Amino acid sequence: MATDMLSSHADRFRLHPVAPRHATMFCFALLTISCALASFALACATPFAAFAVVAPAMLPLRPALLVVTGAWLVNQTIGFGALHYPIDVSTIAWGFVIGAAALAATAASSAMLRALPQGRTPLVLALTLVVAYAAYEFTLLAAAPFLGGEGAFTLAIVTRIGLTSAVWLGGLVAACEIVRMIDPFGRGRAMSA
Length: 193
Fold this sequence. Notes:
This protein is mainly α.
């Protein structure tokens, strides 16, 4: 029975480093720790598009949206608390727009992963990242006429952030694969039971 449950989970999701019962907590921990690292290292260039691919590759849409929201909250807490973002209407509004963009990217990723053939191929995750990044950037771009900041949408900046997201996605997938091989939560033991 446990084998059936794991295989149906594995067939549905692209990344499954831990047993399904641990997937939400593992994904939450992975993305919030990654977000904290990225927030301190990159400040305003946190790779939410990469997070938006990993969450639905591991979880159903609703928990994926909650996990990405948690990562966004970590980012905002670090930004306003530790990095001393200015507390003004524009900065707070941009914070909410970034959260909306991260959620739009997560929903787009989920739809893309459902539409593409099953398998954990790098090409599938790369295509999903392109869709997630487009959804993320278009959401931000839609807010720029109202909040300012159109200058942040140059080809050089958008390309740099996109490449940063691709590197983070590679690192997050590698972390998932390492955890899957180490099997710290006894996923292999559950499969043989």
